[in-house]
Design brief:
By secondary structure, the chain is α+β, with helices and mostly antiparallel strands. It contains seven helices and twelve strands. The strands form two sheets. It has a seven-stranded mixed β-sheet with strand order 1-2-3-7-6-5-4, with helices on both faces. Strands 11-10-9-8-12 form a five-stranded antiparallel β-sheet, with no helix packed on it. A hairpin with a 2-residue loop joins β5 (101-104) and β6 (107-117).
Length: 251
Amino acid sequence: MQTKPEIIRLSEVDSTNRYAMNNFDALADGTLVAAEFQTAGKGRQDRTWVSPPRENIYATFVMKNIAPPVCNASIIASLGALKMLRDAAPGVKFWIKWPNDIYCEFKKIAGILCESRLPSGIVAGIGININMPQSTLDAIDQPATSLLAETGRKFDLQSAVDALADALRGYYADYSKSPRPLFKLWKQENLLIGKPVEIIDAGQKTLQGRIVDIGESGEIFFETGGKTLKLYSGDIRIRKESLDETVLREH
């Protein structure tokens, strides 16, 4: 891995993940590909990621030396995004929502999409709402927010990309030394452990229950109907009792 990550800045691209996958062999390990505008940004399960020009971070981090499971890449990416957000807005409460979102209280502010590049590479797409105005946020089909909405001030996007690259580089270096401490940190930042939630599983079935734990392969142990399920994917719906003000304040 490079000591200092290279940042490739694009004015426009269909998808930073697609660019990174198509140019994977030519890109240096630890490269961050960032675009001012995505014409075909996507999230998990082929959902569209709203990508207005020159408002937010649309980026992909290239990791060429990372071992399975894929959640290792998501851990690095989510911790990097979390650090960038906390450094930018120290008074705002951010946390990780399994499997790969960053939330501000009850609203989504960032998402991560990891894709494998065999034999041992992974690209991690990272979308972070920076200067998205409230009018655009209101049009999104789920509760969403941005740094602008939370702080009332605009942020310099180039500086935000630089800060994200530095944070990702740091956690990638930590991973190369020992993955386990990163997993423990990531797990601590998942505030829904032990909390009641609803999950839509891979079969689109809605389950009500409680997240008991998170395993080292990124799976959750979900208690529902008197049994405990092991789930590797799913969409969590936060219930009112999932997070109270005390949990957020103490975090």
